[in-house]
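Input.
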Amino acid sequence: MNRTSLALSNLRAYAVLVVVAFHSSIAYLSSQPAAALPFDKPPFGWTVNPIVDADRWLGLDLFCASQFLYMMQLMFFLSGLFVWPSLQRKNWHAFLYDRFVRLGLPFALGVALLMPVAYYPVYRVTAVDPSWSAFWSHWIALPFWPSGPLWFLYCLFLLNVGAAALYWLAPRAVERVTRLVAKTDPIRCFAVLVIVSLLAYFAFTDLAEPWHWVEYGPFAIQPAFAPQYAIYFLGGLVVGAGGLERGLLGPDGTLARHWGAWLGAAVVSFLVWISATAMVVKGHALPGLSIVSGIGLALYAASTCFAASAIFLRFTTARRPLLDAVSENAYGIYLFHYVFVLWMQYLLLGVDLPAIFKAVIVFGCTIVLSWAATAAVCSVPFGARMIRGQRRSAPTVASSSAKSAS
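Output.
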């Protein structure tokens, strides 16, 4: 594995850990509702705030806000990096079959089997009859089928289908864009990414509130953020098509050398976003506040993705055993983690501990249990094929990183 691939493998491990930490902290936000939300009544706010704990800490609000604004953009960007090389290696029909096995089947099985188990404790918090049979009757009566964080899998599958269509219909168009990006410095790439994502964000916030979810059956999406996710995936696809050791992600390139500047830009843009957003929430009528908030969001998402990439390219181009192990199991951890997050938060409801301690306990237990579940599933050949993209008899970090779906 080359130096860039090693750095990106480590970055993938970091991204999954951030997602787990984010979900582990949600129950303890000071902005949570005053009490647990009813399971059967619209707008079904428990899908956003599943477990509501009385122990809270404002610091976790700041942590979750700082992660939410960029973590899925980073996940989609990383997911797009290996798509074009995979298409060239397998051709589009074999690629789509692989993505169906890696994304489509885990989504279907996860939604059908894991999500009811994950949301069962959410029902029990407010239930008169906490039995499984009572829960199941309430569950199937819902006007949708909650998919939790597994929405990422079906969105990624659709984007991969689009990439295969692009490879089939217009491969030269991608090659032209790739050559252009290879000749462009990181600042110009950053500017293009910010402008395009900002235009998409403002276009769709006119149709839906930024935090609003639309659900149809098991398919959930945030209309305001979905275009950004597609843009970051496409950005990853274009960068990956040009070769990982060259251009933007070169380990000795301009991006990696100026990691400190990108980190500083991320801090400043977050302060812009949070200041403008806080004033909007408090009802200040200053003109243009929502525009400033949107600009801060777009700047923060892009600069943080660039900063994270630069830091890992600069400092983690050698093997890190722990990160290697997390990266190899990252997809499985993502697939299983929500079950353990919600159950751990539920079990800690009556425990008298500071919120930060609870969040750390949930995070640690979730990583261990999700890792164990991944190992158990991958002990079966088809499970190893579905989660790690390979036969159990030949596991390698390199191939799992290159074929990663998340």
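The chain has a mean pLDDT of 90.
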